[in-house]
Design a protein that fits this description.
2 copies of one chain form a homodimer. By secondary structure, the first copy, chain A, is α+β, with helices and mostly antiparallel strands. Helix content of chain A is 24%, strand content 31%. In chain A, α6 links the parallel β7 and β8. The first copy, chain A, is globular and about 50 Å long. The N and C termini of chain A lie far apart (59 Å). The first copy, chain A, binds a DNA duplex through loops.
Chain lengths: 293, 293
DNA sequence: CCCGGGAGG
DNA sequence: CCCTCCCGG
């Protein structure tokens, strides 16, 4: 099929991310930016389908374009691969990169340096994964608020159900056990089917919420994997699933993180007649509000 | 491969069943038989793999040989097909035949006339079977004891799990709801995996027992489908499953049916280097004992 | 990374 | 009538 080399001029990639100012990056840092002035926290979560080697250059360019457009405070990526990571690191110099592995495909947390202060990170193993999956955790500070940021790519496929749910239980355990002064945000590709959460796990733990549900289950941001629109995988049947999810565990006291909006991104086809990924990305905004206490 | 016609002389088939006395069947009826004098109830259950068209003549001959050797009071067959049924009916004139269908493959109950008095029978539909399966039920009298005899071939394959368990629930319901003065015996190819009963159904209902378990789970009669020995299907992996099971629901009062033994049959290869079936048959003996009340 | 069916082990 | 892999839909 139409495989493409990643090795091409980085000019169009830089331009995709930095826009016309890419020859003078200081211009960007000087120009006033809405998001660096406000107290909204923006989080992007996206499985960028690094395992698909078709149209890689165009897809990375499209990805950089959206990363540059939204410049989320926290970016949670799944299915990063080394060459793509290298490109992003070279170009997104305003972000700090954390990665869950060095090889294969893996997750990454990107922290916008001017907004998010990195404190520490760790990698939690899933002892029985057959797909090399794990949980990447970062403790950060955002405008003085302590945050615990997590991402993962839970075991794939319907047949991975049992393992996936074990992984999810582990994620929830770590969310619950994070320092209680931290707001905890998990975002990633859970590969969950609704019935798995409802019937196998009897719903979410008391302290953890699904951000999409908190926002009233908006239909337009429900399905993050949707073959009725996305034909990257050439699947003739229309199948729509909410694989990608954001979970929130509030801090015990202090300012409370409240989800404000969730939109899907990556919905537009590239010129090469391909989508950036077979998943849509999630773009989420949160605000801090005073605790009721 | 080595398909064989069923249409051959019935001479060797008759001889297989009746032995050297087949030219004078009255001889058989005259000679004293242990089983017709005692109060043991013998039950055979066997999926005879009618869907396999290889070596049919030799396999039916081998089957008749064992049917003639044991002359069980009740024979429960699965995967009967019309030509095989016709052969058995022609030869086993000492049995009454009940069949669950006229076409395709189906189950049958064979009642040894001199020992078992037929009263009535019925066929229970499985409304959502995709394989034409059903439950065949016969009410009979054995030495004055009322019995309800059932057989079925539950939905096959791992992928049939959901449907299979629904069918099993239906079987158990009918067993529980049989007249309480009847002892109820189900025997057949359940296609069950142990975990389905334990984890999906939380074990057997209170009133119903698995005869193999009642006998102390003898290892030598555990696996009725065993590719480590049986190569009819040419499966290179060794897989052993307890597909074929006997369930017992005791009568509420009166003489109680107690399982005495369970052995597997059909373990010997035919001269054609093939087994009678890909399943072993089950041969079970029961005794009646006075109720404790 | 959906689903089902078919081939090979 | 096991399982896994692969392919097509």
């Amino acid at each position: 099929s139409k495989s493409t080399q990643t090795k091409q001029s980085s000019f169009p990639l830089k331009q995709a991310y930095w826009g016309n100012s890419f020859t003078d990056q200081s211009a960007d840092q000087q120009k006033p930016q809405l998001s660096s002035r406000n107290s909204y926290l923006t989080v992007m979560a996206w499985n960028i389908d690094g395992l698909d080697s078709d149209n890689v250059f165009d897809r990375v360019k499209g990805l950089l374009s959206l990363l540059g457009k939204y410049r989320a405070d926290v970016v949670l990526l799944q299915e990063l691969i080394p060459p793509t990571l290298k490109v992003l690191q070279n170009i997104m110099t305003d972000y700090q990169f954390l990665q869950a592995s060095e090889e294969g495909y893996f997750t990454g947390i990107l922290l916008r340096k001017e907004r998010v202060q990195f404190l520490q990170s760790s990698i939690v193993k899933y002892p029985t994964t057959e797909m090399g999956r794990n949980l990447l955790v970062a403790n950060v500070s955002f405008l003085g608020h302590p945050l615990c940021i997590m991402t993962s790519h839970l075991e794939s496929c319907k047949t991975g159900s049992q393992e996936r749910l074990n992984q999810l239980r582990r994620v929830w355990k770590w969310m619950k056990e994070a320092p209680e002064d931290h707001s905890v945000i998990f975002g990633g590709d859970t590969n969950l089917r609704d019935w798995e959460v409802v019937k196998k796990l009897n719903g979410l733990p008391d302290s953890i919420s699904d951000v999409w549900e908190m926002l009233g289950k908006p239909e337009e941001s429900r399905y993050t994997w949707d073959t009725s629109i996305n034909d990257n995988n050439e699947i003739p049947n229309s199948i729509r699933l909410r694989f990608d999810r954001i979970f929130l565990r509030p801090a015990a006291e202090g300012a409370q993180l409240r989800p404000e909006s969730m939109t899907l991104i990556g919905l537009e086809k590239l010129k090469c007649d391909y989508f950036i990924s077979d998943h849509w990305g999630i773009l989420c905004t949160f605000t801090f509000e005073a605790s009721e206490e």
